[in-house]
């Protein structure tokens, strides 16, 4: 399976999150999946890609045409695909992926999460989505979404479209059993 993983590219990550990325990569490799991600070499996802590479598994990096090859791009990707803008990049990743894992990240990660969630809610995307809530990282986002539900701004069904967990095995089991 092609598993798309979204998360932080920031260089300022604590060891616990970097170790989490390493462990997720190891499980992805044990289960013989392909990593699909944004092609960067830094942060949580850079760490993840390096571990997948160290295990000789396939990595599909999807970058922008104007990506800085020296400071941003992880050149060890098995396939490095370039797209002209963010919309095309996200659409391509959504098309080739069989499931999604959202790790801690910033505004870009949230954008990617909410885009696939909207697509799933409109029955455009029918693929498993996991919000990896390590140390309660996404608790406030989840609370905000519950407030939206309580105010009638969205339906209950939205919470049926993704799994919230902080367990690596459960993450991959959910994706594999809901493809």
Automatic annotation (TrEMBL):
InterPro entries, sorted: LOG, LOG_fam
MF annotations from Gene Ontology: hydrolase activity, hydrolyzing N-glycosyl compounds
Any Pfam family the entry gives: Lysine_decarbox
Source domain of life: Bacteria
UniProt keyword Disulfide bond, yes or no: no
Gene Ontology BP, a term: cytokinin biosynthetic process
Keywords: Cytokinin biosynthesis, Hydrolase
Enzyme Commission no: 3.2.2.n1
Assigned GO CC terms: cytosol
Family membership noted in the UniProt record: Belongs to the LOG family.
Protein name: Cytokinin riboside 5'-monophosphate phosphoribohydrolase
